[in-house]
Design a protein that fits this description.
584 residues, alpha+beta, Immunoglobulin-like, 6-stranded mixed sheet, 5-stranded mixed sheet, 15 strands, 9% strand, binds ligand 9MR
Length: 584
């Protein structure tokens, strides 16, 4: 029978020229699937028909299925059909083929199929290191000289204090470049580190051997923590030791040109302290303290110094709750004007809640919670750099055994309710991803939204053991790696159609090689604030792979971090029977 189908396919193949081409109308995860995981492709043109899963040389047909009836995909203005081949579990390399239409990008079915992507997304942080050269041994063809020593950082007039007058200097080397630009921002470091520390706390066993070939590999710390330390050391340096406040950012006055880090030599400043930056700092230092306590032999004293840094930052925030960062107002008062990323936020209540939760868990002192509104709403939201209330719930629910049981169960219920709302109605949508369920997900950094939704779903799984959450988390990994209306896998270097012209200076400045791998492009953003020429105004198609597009094709540490969480989290969970799920 198999032979018969193969023979027929061969005849059909040679009689339709179209069928011999790669079809951009078949959208699927271009990396692949676990043998037991849901396997779905979305087809955007052609007649209702059969589809076939073949070996890439067309010689063998593993599976024949029927496309679904037509479904609407309003965010991309498409009418689509779904190819579901979940019950094809045989490991191997394949293509999906449709008569008259053509074949898909090849994909793999195998255990550990996302391991490379997960490791690359973490390695992406290594490539973002400030003040470090990337030698060939670790960076391969993306080796580069060090940039930005940051040992002579100028106190901007907005940051002047009696002990540190304007134009005096401090040293604050290391850290990660925030994104495609070369600046370092406290707020965005906070959520990024909080997310990566959460990965460690949720899957310590898996992370222990998650090596990514960086200079510190094998030093007794897991590489995830080694990489986090690079940013943590910088973060500690932008806390003012005289009062505990944390500078909002370390930046040039304006964005640098399209040059490599070593050629970007503009004056670097620290800018005024902010309550949001300081509370992000307090949250991750408290988290760091309880994690590094287990590694006292490798990093002696770090657990203590991070905890006292967290406590003095917390005190500064209590004393300065109105010190929000408003870049325009600041520029009216001080020179030079600062025109780089603002990460401005006029509500610090969620940052207070997150910092209080982390300090409570690390110290056991419940008093921190008295200062904050821990449950201001009966609905939690997916975290963003601006909105971190749910980071508090993740932590409180994760450590429920050691704390007030009422608080722990309220936090857990909010996380589970958030995950339930994310899944609601997804199975009736065209693309069948959590991401494409709601138009409002398509915003600046939409890939980060998809990855953070995936993380929220994994959190719910960890509290319930209900594998439905994993299946839906997987739908967003599928979205990120190709099952989306643009047809791109948004992770550079992983998948077949991946962004080549990301808004990322070190990639752009070396035009003759591929972009740095393991970086997550921001993704569709109908705001189109960069005013580049987009191919479409539709939310899910507002994407262009061009340097010009800083609003849809930049990369950023706060989007890469949940990508690491989602891909590594699924990897850690794959053997727990997580993907043997019922179809709706
Ligand atoms: O991710 C940020 C997004 O939510 C904002 O709308 C946007 C405009 O303020 O800024 C984004 O963050 C950028 C930051 O300001 C500077 N570095 C690059 C970041 C990603 O584009």
């Amino acid at each position: 029978m198999k032979y018969f189908i193969s023979a027929i396919l061969f005849l059909i193949t040679i009689s339709h020229a179209d069928a011999q081409r790669l079809s951009e109308s078949i959208h699927l995860n271009q990396v692949g699937f676990y043998p037991e995981s849901p396997k779905i492709a979305v087809v955007t043109e052609g007649e209702p028909d059969y589809f076939y899963i073949l070996t890439p040389d067309f010689s063998d047909t593993l599976y024949t299925g029927q496309l679904s009836t037509i479904r609407e995909a309003p965010n991309s203005g498409e009418r689509v059909r779904v190819a579901d081949f979940t019950d094809m579990t045989e490991p191997g390399n394949y293509i999906l083929w449709i008569t008259k239409l053509g074949y898909s990008y090849p994909f793999t079915v195998a255990p550990r199929v996302y391991e490379d992507a997960a490791k690359a997304s973490l390695k992406g942080f290594y490539h973002q290191r400030v003040s470090a050269g990337i030698p060939y041994e670790y960076g391969g063809k993306w080796a580069r000289p060090a940039g930005h020593p940051d040992t002579l950082v100028v106190i901007h007039p907005s940051a002047a204090s009696p002990e540190r007058p304007a134009n005096s200097v401090i040293s604050a080397p290391r850290g990660w470049y925030d994104a495609g630009d070369y600046n370092k921002y406290a707020v965005n470091s906070g959520i990024t580190m909080g997310t990566l520390f959460s990965l460690y706390e949720d899957f310590p066993e898996y992370i222990r051997d998650f090596d990514i070939n960086i200079p510190e590999t094998g030093n007794g710390l897991p590489d995830l923590l080694n990489e986090l330390l690079w940013n943590l050391r910088w973060f500690m340096d932008i806390q003012d030791p005289h009062d505990g406040g944390v500078y909002h950012k370390l930046t040039t006055a304006n964005f640098e040109g399209r040059v490599m880090p070593a050629e970007a030599k503009g004056t670097r400043y620290v800018i005024q302290k902010s309550v949001t930056g300081t509370l992000n700092f307090a949250a991750v230092m408290a988290q760091a303290s309880r994690i590094f306590q287990n590694y006292e032999n490798v990093v002696p004293g770090l657990a203590d110094s991070t905890l006292s840094a967290a406590e003095s930052a917390w005190q500064w925030a209590l004393d300065n709750p109105e010190k929000l960062y408003n870049q325009n107002e600041m520029n009216e008062r001080f020179n030079p004007d600062i025109l780089t990323g603002a990460y401005g936020d006029n509500d610090a209540s969620d940052e207070f809640a997150w910092a209080a939760a982390e300090l409570y868990i690390t110290t056991g002192n419940r008093d921190y919670l008295d200062e904050v509104d821990l449950f201001p709403s009966d609905e939690a939201s997916v975290p963003t750099w601006r909105s971190v209330q749910t980071m508090a719930y993740y932590t409180l629910a994760r450590h429920s055994e050691n704390i007030d049981s009422g608080i722990a169960s309220d936090a857990r219920d909010l996380v589970i309710d958030l995950a339930n709302r994310l899944m609601d109605g997804v199975s009736e949508t065209g693309y069948r991803t959590v991401m494409d369920r709601d138009e409002s997900n398509y915003t600046w950094g939409s890939s980060g939204v998809a990855a953070n939704q995936g993380m929220a779903l994994i959190q719910a799984f960890l509290h319930t053991d209900d594998t439905t959450y994993l299946k839906y988390a997987h739908s967003n990994l599928d979205y990120l790696l190709g099952r989306n209306a643009t047809g791109f896998s948004f992770l550079t270097g992983h998948g077949h159609k991946t962004p080549l012209y990301i808004h990322h200076r070190p990639s752009d400045a070396r035009a003759n090689i591929d972009p740095v791998p393991g970086l997550l492009s921001g993704g569709p953003n109908p705001g189109q604030q960069d005013e580049c020429e987009y191919p479409s105004d539709l939310p899910a198609k507002s994407f262009i792979d061009d340097w010009c597009s800083y609003a849809a094709n930049e990369i950023a540490i706060n989007w890469n971090a949940p990508m690491v969480y989602l891909s590594a989290g699924l990897e850690a969970l794959q053997f727990r029977g997580g993907f043997t799920v019922e179809d709706e």
